[in-house]
Write a structure and sequence with these properties.
The chain is mainly α and 121 residues long. Helix content is 55%, strand content 0%. The longest helix is centred in the N-terminal third of the chain and has 34 residues.
């Protein structure tokens, strides 16, 4: 057995130990990541993803391009067709990122006062 064959056989002897070590490290990393997310409610960044402060940063470019160039699914290209100037496209993209206004409270008393009972004859 020459020297290169001896080195190759030594490397093969280490292979099972290396694979076991890598699998152990992978399992530990997976367990650590799982432990970090154990109380996560499923949304991004442990909370309401739509209201996260950086969401506008991530979505504003996408919305601007979507409004400008349209989509293959049927969204018109308002920016490149000349219907909207670039400033209006930017304004529209920022408007879409605003939180919607909350409707006013409508209690049971007001609800009952607004009812009209119509009896057909």
């Amino acid at each position: 057995m020459n020297l290169s064959q001896q080195a190759a056989s030594d490397r093969r002897a280490w292979l099972p130990k290396q694979a076991l070590g890598q699998m152990l490290i992978l399992l530990l990393v997976w367990a650590y990541m799982w432990a970090l997310q154990i109380d996560n409610d499923g949304l991004w960044y442990r909370g309401d993803a739509a209201r996260h402060g950086l969401n506008g940063f991530f979505w504003s470019d996408y919305l601007r391009d979507f409004i400008t160039y349209g989509s293959p699914g049927g969204m018109p290209n308002w920016g490149t067709s000349g219907d909207l100037p670039a400033a209006d496209v930017e304004l529209m993209a920022r408007y879409l990122l605003n939180d919607p206004a909350q409707p006013p409270e409508f209690g049971m008393k007001e609800m009952k006062e607004s009812w009209k009972v119509v009896v057909p004859v």
